[in-house]
Amino acid sequence: MNILNLFKNKTFSHGIHLPDKKEHTREQSIRRLHFAPELIVPLSQHFGAPAKAVVSPGQEVVRGQVIAEADGFMSVPIHAPASGVVKEIELYPTAKGPKTEAIIIKTWPGASQRAASFEPVNIASLSHEQLIQAVQDTGMVGLGGAGFPTHVKLSVPPEYSIDTLVVNGCECEPYLTTDHRLMLEKTAELLQGTSMLMNALGAKQAIIGIEDNKMDAFNAIKSHISGFEHIQVKAVQTHYPQGSEKLLIKVLLGREVPSGGFPYQVGVVVQNIATITQLGELLPSNQGLIERVVTVTGTGVNKPGNYLVPLGTPIRFLLDHVGFSGNANHLILGGPMMGSTVASLDVPITKPVSGLLVFNEQSVEKVTDEIYPCIKCARCVDACPMHLNPSILGQLASKRQYEPMMETFNLMDCFECGCCSYVCPSNIPLVQYFRIAKSVLREQPREEA
Amino acid sequence: MIELRTSPHMKGALSLPQIMRHVIYALLPICVFSIYQFGISALVLMTVVTLSCVLTEALFNYLSNKKNSLNDYTAIITGILLALTLPPGFPLWMGAVAGFVAISMGKTLFGGMGFNLFNPALLGRAFVQAAFPVAITSWTPGGMADRFTQFIPSSLTIPFTAPTNTVDSFSGATPLALQKFEATTTPNSDLILGFSSGSLGETSSLLILLCGAYLIIRGFMGWRIPLSIIVSTILISGIFYLMDNTYPSPLFMLTSGGLMLGALFMATDPVSAPVTPMGMWLFGFLIAAMTIVIRLFGGLPEGIMYAILFANASVPLIEAIAQPRKFGQVATKKSGENK
């Protein structure tokens, strides 16, 4: 559509171009954060059934030890992020709102950063089922923000075969630079993890897709890639939401995942950079996920950067160590387009949290802006990457006509990327309307004849 | 105090009042050229019509206890656009009536901005076309020597009396009327630059095109509808012209009458136009086809107004067949077959 696109890297149609705001943290190498006096480790940090605690109050734990085990296949275990003693197991506020059960660990002052070591595993010798089990045992979930258990994503139904593993290095959300730093600093682990998963899936090739605002990472991978002949790295246009897996598959392979379907239906599995890098480290040493890289940035932070944070670290502790100016009134976990705000500084960092954005009063944009009626300017229609019609969806939502939204206008294909709300000149909170509509529709009993 | 909000937490810079302000900026050169051509009658008529629109909107806001909606500038735009479609010597009181009807029946009756089915300016124009058929077809040639010092006599008609001087030395037929009723073709250069008689703002198609292009390039307006109207007009009238060259040429069709103003500033009123890309193409084609049919085979010399109003009424039908193909739609069928 845009002639200039012919000269740029490949991309998908629609979507939006955002200011990337990554300049404050993209040069900041990953720094390790020390242990908070108390870690709050929720039993539900992933999509699926909460883990079951296997420790009890008063019990001593060692960093890396399993403290909660997976409750079924749609669940993952949880490991102690630090050595210490279990103080109690109680309900605790989380980022999503409702309180969930959390194990509270009082860490030993000056506890070692070394995790408990286990017998190393020869990944190549494992059968497919054993490997899936090994991935589940690491407690790994999608670290890009979804929190979907990784082993479930790798368990492709037998009637499908996978030919390509796509490694998602887009990091299309503004502000976030965790994947960027990992690609630069952990290139070897990334490639190792990629080839491990390729074998596990029986895939013929792997493609690492990187947005072209991170060409240093692209070059870093390129220079390490010589030993891995079936792994390619490709630059794609910096274009939100390029990191959405269905769009990335379309751009890299030209395949369209069916509506409501999964990537394996077109022979693809997508994994995030951070997930693969971590697996590359954890799988061979048989260890569990106990920490993750978090980008801490925003106008309310004096020392923005990328921090390796033990899971369960309360936001308050993290903020104290990044020179928090104290008057933040807008805290976002995740990216600015799809992340959620938190109400309490006691909320802990959990597995899917890739960023903590802190904004103070001056920088809070346009909160009080007036909402005007929809003028049908069609900007949202041209922005929606799923090619829906947010204009008509929004009008139906304001009249609470939820059924036609789903049946005629494909509401359920919306993944809440936020493009429509971003471009709306009338400031209509479209994404919020759609979220409400979806939850109302989900709660309605299905009338099946 | 930590605020809770829902994603997305970033917002594009473009706002509705900003878009509307720029539409007004884009209309100003057209207004200035109109005043240059038709003098104080044009200036006062534009002022009266716009004021009538703004006051009507304020009145209805007051009557219906709605909050002030004048700060979105849309009433001003309706006023200016309506004035630009009126003949230069149109009686001022009739202009005020047109403005009142445009806002009251064209906009507030439907629920205000964003809810109107028809372009309010054109609805006002259609009303006065029916109510005052003589005044609305009395044209004054541009560039009269005393235009900056004297009103065109018919402008100052006392309300509810017949306009004075409608048919005499002052009248100058429009290019479309000359073509239709007298088989005289106005030179293309005059049509493009605007040295012909016509409504206040329709004479210079080049100026209108440039002003519209400004809005499109700055991203304040879509490009599909104007492009669709222009391309469809060239194609359809080109076919007629090739079959029989006594029909007017595509260039004449494009540059005469209100087609350019309609294509760039009337049909592009987003509220009364489709939102889907395919719908916009169909909408533009429908307008072009209707306009040409009315111009060539109808009883009126000009048809763009009725064509746009007709297309406005067809929007729900157009949208019903033009919904976009969602991502992953075709693939669903394929995978269904595989299973």
Structure description:
The complex is a heterodimer of chains A (about 450) and B (about 350). Chain A is of the alpha/beta class and about 450 residues long. Among the domains of chain A are: about 5-25 and about 125-285, Rossmann fold (3-Layer(aba) Sandwich), CATH 3.40.50; about 380-445, no CATH class. Chain A has 13 helices and 17 strands. In chain A, strands 1-14-13-17-15-16 form a 6-stranded mixed β-sheet. In chain A, a hairpin with a 6-residue loop joins strand 15 (about 330-335) and strand 16. In chain A, helix 4 crosses helix 7 (about 275-285) and helix 10 (about 390-400) crosses helix 13 (about 430-445). The longest helix of chain A is centred in the middle third of the chain and has 15 residues, at about 185-200. Chain A is globular and about 60 Å long. The relative contact order of chain A is 0.15. The mean pLDDT of chain A is about 90. Chain B has about 350 residues and is mostly helical. Chain B has a domain at about 15-140 and about 140-175. Chain B is globular. The termini of chain B are far apart. Mean pLDDT of chain B is about 90; it is low at about 165-170 and about 330-339. Classes of the chains: A alpha/beta (about 450), B mainly alpha (about 350). Chains A and B meet through helix 6, strand 15, strand 16, helix 9 and helix 12 of A and helix 1 and helix 14 of B.
List keywords for this structure.
heterodimer; A: 449 residues; alpha/beta; Rossmann fold; six-stranded mixed beta sheet; four-stranded antiparallel beta sheet; 13 helices; 26% helix; 19% strand; B: mainly alpha; 14 helices; globular; disordered C terminus
Return Rg of chain B in Å. Answer: 21 Å
Order of helices and strands of chain A: EEEEEEEEHHEHHEHEHEHEEHEEEHHHHH
| Helical coverage of chain A, percent range | 25-40%
Judged by helices, strands and strand pairing, the structural class of chain A is alpha/beta
CATH topology annotation of the domain at 3-26 and 126-285 in chain A: Rossmann fold
Spatial gap, N to C terminus of chain A: 46 Å
Pair with the biggest interface: A-B, 69 and 44 residues
- On the 0-100 scale, what is the average pLDDT of chain A? 89
Instruction: Name the structural class of chain B.
Output: mainly alpha
- Describe the strand arrangement of the main beta sheet of chain A, using strand numbers: 1-14-13-17-15-16
Mean pLDDT of chain B: 88
Q: Point out poorly predicted stretches of chain B.
A: 166-170, 331-339
Architecture per CATH nomenclature, i.e. the level-2 architecture of the domain at 3-26 and 126-285 in chain A: 3-Layer(aba) Sandwich
| Stretches with pLDDT under 50, minimum 5 residues of chain A | none
Oligomer: heterodimer
